[in-house]
Amino acid sequence: MGRPAPCALLLAAxxxxxxxxxxxPRPRVTANFACRVRADSALLxxxxxxxxxxxxxxxxxxxxxxxxxxxxxxxDCQPCVRVRLALHTAGLGSVCGLQLDFLVLGSNRGSWxxxxxxxxxxxxxxxxxxxxxxxxxxxxxxxxxxxxxPDRGLSxxxxxxxxxxxxxxxxxxxxxxEARAIEVSVPEGRALTVRLCHQLALECEELSTPFPxxxxxxxxxxxxxxxxxxxxxxxxxxxYLHRDSLRTKRCPFQAQPAAYGSELWxxxxxxxxxxxxxxxxxMVLSARCPLHPTATLCWKQSDTxxxxxxxxxxxxxxxxxxxxxxxDVHPLLCFKxxxxxxxxxxxxxxxxxxxxxxxxxxxxxxxxHVTSTVPASFSAALCRRQGSRCEPEAPVYTVTxxxxxxxRELTLLLPLQVLGGCVLVWRSDVQFARKQLLCPDVARxxxxxxxxxxxxxxxxxxxxxLMNYRSLQKxxxxxxxxxxxxxxYSPDSEEHKILVCALADVLRSALGCDVRLDLWEAGSVGRxxxxxxxxxxxxxxxxxxGTVLLLWSQGSTRLYQxxxxxAAGSSxxxxxxxxFGAAMSCLQSELQLGGGAxxxxxxxxxxxxxxxxxxxxxxxLCLLPxxxxxxxxxxxxxxxxxxxxxxAWLRPSTLLHRLLMAEKRKCLQGRVELCRxxxxxxxxxxxxxxxxxxxxxxxxxxxxxxxxxxxx
Length: 712
Known about the structure:
Blueprint: H1 4-17, E1 28-31, E2 35-39, E3 47-50, E4 62-72, E5 75-88, E6 97-104, E7 109-117, E8 126-135, E9 141-149, E10 156-161, E11 172-176, E12 181-185, E13 192-199, E14 204-206, E15 215-217, E16 222-226, E17 234-240, E18 247-250, H2 262-266, E19 269-272, E20 280-286, E21 294-300, E22 307-309, E23 316-318, E24 321-325, E25 333-339, E26 342-346, E27 355-361, E28 365-372, E29 377-386, E30 389-392, E31 397-400, E32 408-415, E33 422-427, E34 436-438, H3 442-467, H4 469-477, E35 484-489, H5 494-509, E36 514-516, H6 522-528, H7 530-543, E37 547-552, H8 554-567, H9 579-594, E38 603-608, E39 626-629, H10 633-641, H11 651-678
Parallel strand pairs: 1-3, 35-36, 35-37, 37-38, 38-39
Antiparallel strand pairs: 1-8, 2-7, 4-5, 5-8, 6-7, 6-9, 9-10, 11-12, 12-16, 13-14, 13-15, 13-17, 17-18, 19-20, 20-24, 21-22, 21-25, 23-24, 25-26, 27-28, 28-32, 29-30, 29-31, 29-33, 33-34
């Protein structure tokens, strides 16, 4: 083993780092010299003292075993084996220490203990050591062997039988549930001390104040012990009055179903550590019984309603702390704890939420205002109620808040397709989120206006039918179809996007056009990619004889110049995933292949008159039909619908057509007015005036129906 001094230093470091477990009985070693002790993990670190042994000394070499009791204070005693030894090491050479090896027959449980001299150079070769003591069950035989460190060939062996202890005290009990008490009866004979306790892993913990702890009961008498909660770990313990007495413990409610009811959950304390900023739910459980219930998430329809389980939402448990990650923390999103056939719902203790949403109706559109205190993504979808359920319908609209401090305000525009419809809003960047259902009362607010408008429309339609029945019959029987319209724009600002969405909604809802817009097909754009999606839509427009409508702005002029520079090989390189740049590439390739405006019948250009002027349109694009909005909206509508101007003699039909176009122009102008109200102060968007209707002088003749070449 080397020199003794390093051995002692190493042992001292180990003893300083490893402290005894609190509240557990510790073995003890006494010797006739200054000593140090080391033991395996089965024995708590013994303490070593220098002390002359009491009683008659042993004649060396000797190894003596006897039965003793190892106690913690005045209770929880257990039998153990005491070891005494005496040994002369003069004829054994240099001895660093002694080693005791223990083996319990029947269970094959083993352990070892080593004792060193603190000062190896001290004179004297007599080793006298007493070890109190090695714990063992009653009725077991223990083998003990003595050797030297290092091994000098010495071996002393002894065995000892620990006698079986007599049975503990006897008692009987009766449970009185109506009185919430247990009556304990002691038979004739010796007096006992009885108590109620909660059985934990290693000990039985006394009930808290004001419930009695230990009560002496004379033989032939009984006592009633009240309890606070009926729990499966509630036990009755009895012992004799003297110290180190045997104890008898009974736990009668472990198989009692009533012990696993509401009182089990009432005895627990729930500590909520959920955090909306971290998107997780944490609930820490403090229980009187060492139980480990399972926990899942559930939704409550109301504060007093039932809680519906969320699939695949089992919480992770560690030291009775239950955690679920990626959760939109909400007061009605709760933990559901289950143990056996009993369950308990515990909701977050904080009533506030990380975000709120409100809805308003403007010009047959749903305007959602989302306020969030954390950076997050939110989705919304229209739905129609069917009983108590409302299933979302495609498409799904999504908006993401930026990474910034303080509350964030977001806006979502949804088309109102059906009166009486609802909208579902939820946080979409987490795994578990509650969908909020909003149902604006559109029908009651708009019913009067709709009825009046319907009556006027029916009266006007009847007049027109009477004045020119045969001409309107020809128009009604003419073949019509929904041609696709692909909207291409430059993403200048949120105001421009709102105008684009408003125009797209007018074309779809008022004119019945099949509008293709990347903002409405975010799922397809994300799945296919920006350029493949554009090429697919361009081929569809060419095949179905539709129209590619360029919505021009001052930002479009800047992006067009950057695109021209990139195409010419300059240093400015546009984004290769930009839909606007890809559309310009398609247009240029078709100009080169077609050789003039006569081959570009499915391209058109429009701009909002108060955002830019006709001078902002590049000369190369003046070959396209050009319309100023909202002044020239009727002409654009005729182009998109593919219908020629009605003959001049059809005066009633012309009047009806102009009235309908004026109504559509007002609808668009109303949407632009809504966007202007939402715009921050100082922005350039102004009120759009309504002017005369007429086509653009830059528009070419009627477009042909020839097939367009591919731009891929």
